[in-house]
Structure prediction request, 615 residues.
Amino acid sequence: MAGSVFLPIPARPAPVKTEGVLPWMRANLFGNWVNSLVTALIAVAIGYAASAFLSWGLVNAVFAPSADQCQAARGSGACWGVIVEKFRIIIFGRYPYAEQWRPEIGTILLLGLLIMSCIRRFWKPWLVPAWIVVLFAFFSLMGGGRLGLSDVGSDQWGGLPLTIMLATLSIVFAYPLAILVALGRMSTLPAIRSLCIIYVELIRGVPLISVLFMASFMFPLFLPVGKSPDVLLRVLVGITLFSAAYLAEVVRGGLQAIPKGQVESSQSLGLTYWQTQRKIVLPQALAMVVPGIVNSFIAIFKDTSLVTIVSLYELTGAMGLALNSEADWRPFKIEGYLFITLIYFVFCFSMSRYSLWIEHQVGRSKTR
Amino acid sequence: MAEPIISFERVNKWYGNDFHVLRDIDLVVAAGERIVVCGPSGSGKSTLIRCINRLEDHQEGRIVVTGIELSDDVKAIEQVRRQVGMVFQQFNLFPHLTVLENLTLAPMWVGKTPRKQAEENAMQQLERVKIAEQANKYPLQLSGGQQQRVAIARALCLTPKIMLFDEPTSALDPEMIKEVLDVMIELANQGITMICVTHEMGFAKAVADRVIFMDQGQIVEQNTPHEFFDRPQNERTKDFLSKILGS
Prediction:
């Protein structure tokens, strides 16, 4: 309309107020009678389950390490006493009782450095020598045989220290290997590409258990007696190769999402293949697949529980060991499993929260 | 004609087995010459200039750039690329690096220039394309025209002897084309060797020493802009010009 005057419409509040606890509840939980009914039903169900769990896990539970009391409470209450009684075996496995301060200190060192490596403030060049020193200290403490520490064979290592060590080392070695394999699969050189494809498809075609069996039992058969490397090392290599294959496919997904123009403009500036990958392709590709990478890391952490089948008693195995060793405690597996579930959950949940933080960090250049 | 800086001798290229994209290309470019390449889409003009820094390889014939013959020799290719800057239709800035880091990357890693010096030089190049105040932003925070000017500055940071432009204004909004063309005209007036694939005929008339018209992988006609636009020799050229000039 010619000559009309622009009249701004004054801002009005939204029709449903959802700020604050009560308005939010009214809007989302009790909006109409169907919502209210569903809310009430779910509340009753949650309340019933929670009260049942609380009465079992807290009210009727036995906290004292007494097998008799636990036996009496069976069926009505949890026996947390079993954790108190068997704590040292669950956490340290078959490691000699008097020497368990050694894995304790070693694990604290390893975990401490692991946490430090996750914090931006500590991303300095000294982190690399720090890792070498801490790993050396960890293995010296665990294995002994020097500095007056008694010798403890790797077949006696166990529990949480073994879980953390296996997971950390296989992640640390699998990650760079996976990047190389992913780049290899994208390579234009046919020999390298086929090699990487064969590796990935071969490993993905077998279960981890069979890889561990081969590493543990078959591999030594091909070597002269007494010449084969330590079982722990063989298993570590097995898990690393296995995880790297999966991780490589995650990384390849990121590589494929990088537009061709990025590589071309990098090449046109005279950067070499490795400079292009390191400075242009990988930073963008890895940033895109952080959720998938952390997913694989979490899977690796939990997959370490499979080494039990080759007689390495990591956390899960140590728990079984602890409870099976005495007939009195054998019935309380649920409590034991809940306890190690909690430990696994703490580690895995920390990793997934950390992944969110990393995603936030790498997403900052995209903000407009 | 002065010493040739680029020469094509009977160059042929195929994509796959049956798409003959470049056919018997003979081309000599003198140092300091400014050339505009035009032609319908699929005529091979982008492929032609991408052969100069070997983003594409050719199967027959010889290409010599700044005295170095292009072959599978990786070292030779890197040497050529250091002297040939390229600007793409889609800008191709590195989105995870700031504007300044986009510019210092190649000088620091290819030219082995110390960071401080690379940054000073980068700021000069940004001044040159009139965008210095955006140095610490990320590429996606800039408009298309600004991104393309950053891309030009980035290509200039290694002080190339030759600049290649592959349809530098085709992905831009109309009101941003001028700011990019202005930068390119200024660059042309400073005497750098330039080969530009573009349909900006005003630009061709203003700066080109020579206009090359390609169709179906061949160089159909080449002439000074004046002769090319006013007295096209070939029927195909006349047809093309009548379409893009809309007369």
User: Anything to note?
Assistant: Chain B touches chain A at residues 53, 55, 74, 78, 81-82, 84-86, 88, 90, 92-98, 105-106, 109-110, 138, 140-141, 151, 154-155, 158 (CB under 8 Å).
